[in-house]
Amino acid sequence: PSRSTMNPSSVASAAGAAGGSLQRSSLQLYRDCLRLVNHVAPGSSPKAIALRNLVRSEFHKSKDVKDEIQVEQLKNNAIRALSNYMLYESGSKDSKLGTAMNKFNDDVRRDS
User: Fold this and answer.
1) Cβ distance 6 to 35 under 8 Å?
2) Looking at residue 22, what is its pLDDT?
3) What percent of the chain is predicted at pLDDT more than 90?
4) Distance in angstroms (rounded) separating the CA atoms of residues 101 and 14
5) Which residues fall within 8 angstroms of residue 4, CB to CB, at 6 or more apart?
6) Nearest alpha-carbon partner for 65 in 74, 76, 56, 57
7) What pTM does this model have?
8) What are phi and psi of 86, to 5 degrees?
9) In which element (H, E) is residue 13 found?
10) Dihedrals φ, ψ of 29, to 5°?
11) Beta-carbon count within 10 A of 97 CB
12) Under a CB-based contact definition with an 8 Å cutoff, are residues 28 and 14 in contact?
């Protein structure tokens, strides 16, 4: 996907099909994370460099994980983080969605 057409379904597709290899789907997820960084902070701004370094370090920390269940959990966490960020960005651009998100967060804080 190009920077202007990145959407949650393209991020979710990075997890790969159930029959796909773990390495391939992890690689797809890594690439999607870097694409999102380029979308959020294009170029070589300090924000872009910091985000790229964060993505690289998180994937590097987990490179030796071989347990399939743990790999799936790590991939699901990455997909959730990307989806949450994209929802957050959408909320900042769509006033109706932003208002609903703020109300939800206020309700959650009040119930805690």
Assistant:
1) yes
2) 54
3) 6
4) 26
5) 39
6) 74
7) 0.56
8) -65, -35
9) none
10) -65, -40
11) 14
12) yes
